[in-house]
Amino acid sequence: MEAVILVGLQGAGKSTFCQQRFWHTHLRLNLDLLKTRHRERRLLAVCAETSLRFVVDNTNPSRAERAVYIAAVKPVKFRVVGYYFTAPLDDCRRRNDQRPDAQRVPDRGVWATAARMEVPSLAEGFDALFTVHTDDAGGFVVGDWPDTRVEA
Fold it and tell me: What is this structure's pTM?
């Protein structure tokens, strides 16, 4: 049983990464798709109750937001893995501007997320954390988390 939590700004590549890595193996929890937190929580509960692997494809900028998912699945022995997207704000804004109008996030929304972003930590309850950035060809490079010690 695995819960994957993606963390990063809008336009960082989370959904593309999700599609490439988890599309055929994990249920995707995404607020753009589900529209309400109520629906998301219900689906999260079903995943926890049925041991269904899932990936949370949202920005998840704060510890408090990530804690909701971790608290729901740790008691039922899920392995929780986080991927932190390190794309610079300017790159995210550029990619966001290239989206179709219906999918574009206003710049103020990207800035607001950047202001709330808290770098994830193993101490939050993650079993593993990785960094993700794009290479010059537009592919994804997954790196080891710089600090593997669990913080107090």
Answer: 0.91
- Per-residue pLDDT of 51-70, as tens digits, reads 999 999 999 999 999 999 99
- Residue identified by tokens 């990464």 is 17
Can you tell me the distance from the alpha carbon of 103 to that of 131, in angstroms, rounded to the nearest whole number?
A: 25
| pLDDT band at 148; cut points 50, 70, 90 | low
Q: Top-level CATH class of 2-144?
A: alpha beta
3-state secondary structure of 67: helix
Domain definitions of the chain by residue range: 2-144
Which residues fall within 8 angstroms of residue 16, CB to CB, at 6 or more apart?
140
- Positive or negative, the CA dihedral 149, 63, 59, 55 is positive
